[in-house]
Design goal:
- The structure is a homodimer of 153-residue chains.
- Chain A has a two-stranded antiparallel ribbon with strand order 1-2.
- Chain A starts with a helix and ends with a helix.
- Chain A has 153 residues and is mainly alpha-helical.
- Chain A has a domain of 102 residues: Arc Repressor Mutant, subunit A.
- The mean pLDDT of chain A is 81.
Chain lengths: 153, 153
């Protein structure tokens, strides 16, 4: 049982934006900081932009930033956009399920109840909480150094 | 986010055993009822037998049965045996993680807290609860018919 890589890096991207003291963060820099591809991050950005969690600014000096204060973005908001499915098992996902129990199965509601408890906890954690140690995160992500380098120092 | 197919069918196998009014259930019959391969079910059986959730009886009239009353087997007991890992994201699973935040990440504890809520719910559901509509499940799984056929009716 695990969250997808998409959700994991969506949260990390938002943490980066929250930790970045500049107005706009750049995807190539985020990709470099986390050691993942830009293409992968751009793919994750789509649902985040569509739902307003992230705003994009186009152009040479463009970049991305949080669409609302970090205090107003919960982990539940993020996971809702980035997970493809909350069907806990393939037998509940489509009508072609093989299992003869599919319509009378108490297991369905047990998984659902557990999932709700999981999501309930996530709704109490915000990107702001996760970025509370902002300065430490900023330095670990190399934010200061990158900016200095970009400015030619 | 989803549970593995292993966990899903482990629970279904236990529901089958609980619904089966005979002393022993046979894996080929369970495989046929759920439309999965015997090999797959035998693979899942290993950790269930090792942990005592399932008992096997060898021989021509052998088979499997619950290792203790269905009331004493929770979904948590099962998932603990059948899920390979409870690391919610690959960055917490090994020491080779790329993420520079891995040692200072509040996200780790947020996922962990949510996972604990998920597992807590599962610890309150037993195989007996899931098999409460035992007769309905038995007929849906074709248990009556299979036995009649085996007896030559």
């Amino acid at each position: 049982m695990r969250i997808t890589k998409q959700t994991n890096y969506a949260v990390r991207m938002l943490m980066y934006c929250a930790a970045d003291r500049n107005e706009l963060s750049r995807v190539p820099e985020i990709a470099r900081a986390y050691g993942v591809s830009e293409l992968f991050l751009f793919k994750i950005l789509k649902p985040l932009v569509r739902s307003g969690i992230v705003q994009t600014v186009r152009g040479r000096n463009g970049g991305i930033k949080l669409g609302r204060p970090a205090e107003k973005i919960t982990l539940f908001d993020v996971i809702r956009e980035t997970e493809d499915s909350f069907a806990m098992a393939e037998c509940f996902e489509n009508d072609e399920a093989e299992c003869p129990l599919v319509n009378s199965c108490a297991l369905n509601s047990a998984w659902r109840e557990a999932l709700n408890a999981f999501l309930e906890v996530l709704s109490h954690h915000t990107i702001a909480d996760l970025s509370a140690t902002r300065f430490d995160i900023g330095s670990r992500l190399g934010l200061g150094e990158l900016r200095s380098a970009a400015r030619g120092h």
